[in-house]
Amino acid sequence: MTLFASGDSTAAANLVPTVPRSLRTAGEANDPWPHIVNALLDVLEREDRFDVIHAHVEAGGLVLARASRRPVVVTFHGRLDRPWADTALPRSSGHLVAISAAQASAQPHARWTAVVHNGLDLTDAPFGGPRGDDLCFVGRIAPEKGVLDAIEIARLAGRHLRIAAKAGWTEVEQAYERTVFLPAARSADVEYLGELSGPDRDRLFAESYATLMPGEWPEPFGLVAIESLACGTPVVARPVGALPEIVRDGRDGFLASSVSALSTRLDAVAGLDRREIRRSVLERFSAARMTDAYERIYRRLAAEATP
Asked: Mean per-residue pLDDT for 105-120?
């Protein structure tokens, strides 16, 4: 197996560095496309070594599928309710995979090979330690993530809110953080922790009463949700995008469409079975389950391509 990725990646594979380190840590995430083009060229120069190619570079995967002589699996991780996707996906020669049924539904005319939910190795997520009454919000400081609604939900519920979030990537998001989010956070019972490491983020989940995900955008998946549930921490969210595929309403948390409704559901969180929440998410969204699904696709495509 060969992985084309940044040079600071770690994986049990032959690593072909496409850039020395991740674009985000290098401060170049605003314009990844020149680097993606270089990566596609690297793949095409070596394509005869592979049985199947799997692309995770959004629209770039469609170009790779058209240019390559090998079967190309194209997994999308972002929004597909966009004009470019309306035009490009129905004429793709790639084997398209969505990360949720909600994401695929944005392009009903595309020829979908499969829906494969994301998976993570969640077995080491902390569980069973002391838990407080605080709420948490984990994500990115951007309007679509609903961070201001999270502040309002916590205010209505009379609960302290801890926010662990990365700063915006674009100038627009950075301006939003500076002029909108920070003033709102300073005027409320909010603790802004900045961006946390993986272990510190998981500890925040494990210590919290519930995780808030009140964004209104069509979340293509929602890794924050499964990371929280693996710690036994219920998720209180709007029923948008893929979240209803992850959060079983009344079992893993609660889904509601307004800030006021979400705040009133918080008291009922105390009655949820946190042990069952963790057990279920480890089964439904494991890395092994995701890997098995992709391997079935690879084997089928490789067999079909064999003369």
From this structure: 97
Judge if 269 and 140 occupy the same domain. Answer: yes
pLDDT at 29: 66
Strand 95-98 with 72-75, pairing: parallel
Q: How far is CA 147 from the centre of its chain?
A: 16
d(CA 9, CA 15): 8
**Helix-, strand-, coil-residue percentages of the chain, each rounded to 5:** 45, 15, 40
> CA end-to-end span of the chain, whole Å?
22
Range of the domain at 33: 2-120+287-305
- Specify if 127 maps to a domain: no
Residue bearing tokens 């005869």: 48
* 126 belongs to a structural domain: no
The reply to whether 160 and 185 lie within a common domain is yes
Residue 167 in contact with residue 177, Cβ under 8 Å? yes
Amino acid at 270: A
pLDDT, one tens digit per residue, over 217-236 is 999 999 999 999 999 999 99
Decide: pTM greater than 0.85. Answer: yes
Distance separating alpha carbons of residues 285 and 271, to the nearest angstrom:
23
CB 92 within 8 A of CB 74: yes
Residues 198 and 242 in one domain: yes
Domain count, the chain: 2
- Residue 125, domain member (yes or no): no
- Look up residue 235 and give its DSSP letter: E
CATH code of residue 167: 3.40.50.2000
pLDDT in tens, 258-280: 999 999 999 999 999 999 999 99
